[in-house]
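Chapter summary example.
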Amino acid sequence: MSVSYSFAAGVEGPRIIKLRATSTESGNSAEGEARFEVGTVGFLLVLPPSSQSNAAEISEPGDDYVLVFTIRSAHPELEQQIRADVELDNLWTVYDARLDEDDRNFVLAAGESRNVTIHIDVREENLENLAANIVDFNVSLVVISDLATTTKTTEITLFKPDPIPEGTDVKEVGWLAANFALVAVGLAIMGAVLFSSFRVLRSARAPLELSLIQL
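The structure predicted for these 215 residues follows.
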């Protein structure tokens, strides 16, 4: 027999689930209960990245960028089995972000702290393909134990190596310049036509004026 269960959104703190099962054949029954610490109950603390981190701003490719977090057990008595993982805004802004294998699963005694390191690998094409000259990007450390769960998110900033020109759009400027050039050419052609028409008109009137003088 298997039983599925879940807790409603916003539920936190200790919760007890009791189960009683009765055999349909013999009528015998048994019961049991399980105790859960639900939600973020304060037994895990994750501090912001320490001064050992060097990934707050990234303007060059490299695989040696790190974010160092400190995880602290706040339980006064019990040890906690810790599982840690990395979550990103998306999977394409950076090439890779990972924890060392030893930092993914470990045990914290009551009141104990431990540093875990997220290694970030940024390739040249990641920076070249940024949607803007400066992009803010969230990296989250998710920490789960058998007593609590918590997430710490930090923001890193990436810089495009060849910035996109700011101000008026380059294509728009080119389009306007092309239109002005066409207008100028059109005006020049119209001027030439009018000038030629004027010369033809003067030539046509000259014999008529000469005939009137003779008369």
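To summarize the output: The chain has two domains: 44-159, 167-215.
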